[in-house]
Amino acid sequence: YQQAMQILADCAATGRVAEDAEILWLISIREKLRYKKDFTASDDLRNALRNSLGIELHEKEKRWATPDGRQGLIPMFSDLA
Asked: What is the spatial distance between Cα 15 and Cα 22, in angstroms, rounded to a whole number?
C-alpha cells in the first residue's frame, strides 16, 4: 500500500504518465485491500488514483479508464494470487 501511494505521489509531482502495467499493479493492490476488507485503505487508494492520475474505476463494469482513453479490466479476487 505504501509503495502504491508513493508511485502515485511521484507521478503527480513529476507529471509522469503511469504505464498500463503500473496502473494494473496499483489496481490489483487496491483489490487486495478490498479482499482483506481494509476499506479505508482501498478507498484512499481509489481516491489517489482519481486525484493523482485521473483514473476512474467503474466498479459495476469491473473496468478502469484514464483521461487519455486507455482502459482495462479490474481483476477479480480469484485472479489475485
From this structure: 15
The whole-angstrom separation of Cα 40 and Cα 51 is: 16
Please identify which residue in the block is written with the cell numbers 487496491: 30
C-alpha cell at 36: 482483506
Give the orientation angle of helix 20-35 with respect to helix 2-14, to 10 degrees: 140
SS3 assignment, position 33: helix
* φ, ψ at 48 (rounded to 5°): -65, -40
**70: DSSP letter:** -
Give just the sign of the alpha carbon dihedral 28, 33, 34, 39: negative
Dump pLDDT digits (tens) for 12-45: 999 999 999 999 999 999 999 999 999 999 999 9
Q: Which residues pair with 57 in a beta bridge?
A: 64
